[in-house]
Specification:
Blueprint: E1 8-10, H1 15-30, E2 34-37, E3 45-53, H2 58-61, E4 64-70, E5 75-81, H3 91-94, E6 106-109, E7 115-121, H4 139-148, E8 154-169, E9 175-185, E10 195-200, H5 205-216, E11 221-223, H6 228-235, H7 257-281, H8 285-305, H9 313-341, H10 343-348, H11 359-381, H12 383-400, H13 426-446, H14 454-473, H15 480-519, H16 525-557, H17 559-570
């Protein structure tokens, strides 16, 4: 669509009224133009259009949309800016309105002239996930592969789009503009509101804008504020960006602590549940990563403020043990994922050995992962996992509603269940407990010297995670700017500690895997030598992280760092709006 020329969408909810509105629009432009259907006598062209993104909306987050339009033979991937009105639908190229282009060419422009990128593809199965490595070579793949990894592209929503093009002729019977009418529906669902757009013809821009003004005056149409993608999602009860692994719990400083704690824990449980399906299907490795992070956050939350929930200690201990089990059962698969995700980096870092020398190691890792994934899948499908998440949700839902004694308690014993003790507002609790976490990090970090054992840094990393989670749990209560400064310093410290610990763990695991491969007779000598070189490279990275620790810790916990934390906690109700 021409930059700056708005599209129009039918208003109201009655499809019959939409048909009348389209007829009125054609009649309106006919008052000043001769309206001729493009390729008069041919049926309007209908194509199936599917929008794609990762589960966590990585393309949407950077302002892009990707869709696949099926054709008789093959189809095309189209990457475009996702700003409103950047794309009025499949009308341009699907209807032959002059915007179709070859591979890598501009297929229309978005706001500010940002061009779409079109890549013809064959043999594309849109219904299944596609990892970045599965994308066919071309300009679209070149632009998005780095944004996606390691996530898979998934079909988000599909519509069938029927586009009819009308030529608008002046008194000399010259085409001065085109009117595009797109009617869409979700397969198996209701039709969506039809959309209209005017495309200009070079040299006749004034006539095109006149036609657009005529459309704007037609009752039953309004400016298309949302692109077709958003409208199709809305029809399914969804919206772009509706999944995130962030803890965006809706809490306020004045909210009673038990209720706020339940809201936070329910948000974490939602994330666990949302990712189970992707783990079982092995869609991509980030499903397991997000699930594990939410399990770890839940365990930290129970330590931090589980006591305010008002549950009996034995019951709280039971759920804490269940979430520990969930963490333990996911660890082997995730550890193997880390090795495989880092494999290309390991191979590229070889100097004496060749990357091909590591291939038996890759094969061994993949074999082990398949076995561990089967074990993990059994656990996630087990009655134990189902009961734990179901009962936990019931408990939290009751606490959020202010009825903690009714969740899952036998009828005869409900009278004996005590309500939660009053703990005051969550704002006060958040400041107190976050401060304790910070003091613990500051003291343990200050005690670390160059002679300290690795275990001291490992323990500090755990304390840093607890502090980071505390800050994330209560982020809506804090001033945005103050929160960003504290979390930024903490994140840099965590990255340093994470590099130290992760390399230490990988070194130990590679040695153990080498021994296992040797025992199984699956370790050629060149592979063992290459694995030894990888281990040496990991040790170099580990030593670099250890040398950088003192600087990172000082930046977080020195006098200025303590002042920033104090400002954050004292001004916890000052901020408004979203947090980073």
């Amino acid at each position: 669509m021409t930059p700056g020329l708005a599209g129009f969408v039918a208003t109201g909810d009655d499809p019959h009224a939409w048909d009348d509105s389209v007829g009125a629009a054609l009649a309106a432009v006919a008052t000043e133009f001769t309206v001729v259907r493009e390729r008069d006598g041919d049926p309007a062209r209908t194509r199936r259009r599917t929008w794609l993104d990762t589960f966590d909306w990585r393309l949407h987050k950077v302002g892009l949309t990707l869709d696949y339009v099926a054709a008789y033979r093959g189809g095309e991937l189209r990457l475009a800016p996702s700003a409103p009105n950047a794309d009025t639908g499949a009308a341009g190229s699907a209807a032959g309105a002059g915007s179709a282009a070859g591979a890598g060419s501009a297929a229309g422009a978005g706001p500010g002239g940002a061009a779409s990128t079109v890549q013809p593809v064959t043999g594309w199965t849109v219904a299944r996930p596609h990892l970045p490595s599965d994308l066919p070579d071309g300009p679209v793949a070149a632009k998005i592969a780095g944004l996606l990894a390691p996530r898979a592209l998934l079909p988000v929503v599909t519509v069938t789009a029927t586009t009819t093009v009308y030529r608008l002729l002046n008194e000399d019977d010259k085409t001065v503009a085109r009117l595009l009418v797109e009617q869409t529906a979700i397969p198996g669902g209701n039709p969506l509101a039809p959309r209209l757009a005017i495309t200009e013809v070079r040299g006749y821009q004034a006539q095109g804008r006149r036609a657009a003004r005529l459309l704007a005056a037609v009752p039953g149409f309004g400016a298309a504020a949302d692109p077709p993608f958003a409208a199709a999602l809305r029809a399914l009860g969804r919206r772009p960006g509706d999944y995130t692994n962030k803890i965006d719990a809706a809490i306020t400083a004045a909210m009673p602590a038990p209720r706020a704690a339940a809201v936070i824990l329910l948000r974490l449980l939602d994330t666990v549940d949302a990712n189970v399906g992707g783990v079982l299907k092995d869609t991509d490795t980030e499903f397991l990563h997000d699930l594990r992070v939410s399990v770890r956050r839940t365990r930290s939350a129970l330590k931090l403020f589980g006591d305010v929930l008002g549950l009996p200690k034995a019951e709280l201990a039971f759920f804490a043990a269940e979430f520990k089990w969930m963490g333990d059962v996911t660890t082997p698969t995730r550890d193997l994922d880390v090795h495989l995700l880092d494999f290309a980096r390991m191979a590229d870092g070889l100097a004496a050995a060749k990357p091909d020398d590591l291939e038996p190691f890759r094969g061994y890792l993949e074999q082990r992962r398949r076995k561990e994934l089967r074990t993990l899948a059994r656990a996630l499908r087990s009655a134990r996992f189902t009961a734990a998440t179901r009962d936990w949700r019931a408990k939290l839902t009751a606490i959020e509603a202010g009825h903690p004694g009714t969740a899952g308690a036998p009828a005869r014993s409900r009278k004996a269940v005590k309500t939660p003790r009053q703990t005051g507002p969550i704002g006060t609790l958040a400041a107190e407990r976050t401060r304790v976490c910070f003091v613990r990090v500051a003291r343990r970090g200050a005690a670390i010297t160059p002679e300290s054992q690795p275990e001291a840094l490992h323990d500090l990393r755990k304390r840093c995670k607890e502090l980071r989670y505390a800050l994330e749990f209560f982020a809506p209560l804090y001033d945005w700017a103050a929160y960003g400064k504290v979390v930024g310093d903490l994140k840099r410290l965590q990255d340093c500690l994470g590099e130290f610990q992760d390399t230490d763990v990988q070194i130990g695991e590679i040695r153990a895997l080498a021994a296992a491969m040797l025992a199984a007779g699956e370790a050629p000598a060149v592979t063992l030598l290459a694995m030894g070189e990888v281990t040496a490279g990991l040790m170099v990275r580990q030593h670099a992280a250890r040398a950088d620790f003192a600087r990172r810790f000082a930046a977080f916990a020195d006098v200025d760092g303590q002042r920033r934390m104090s400002v954050l906690l004292r001004g916890r109700q000052a901020g408004a709006g979203r947090y980073p």
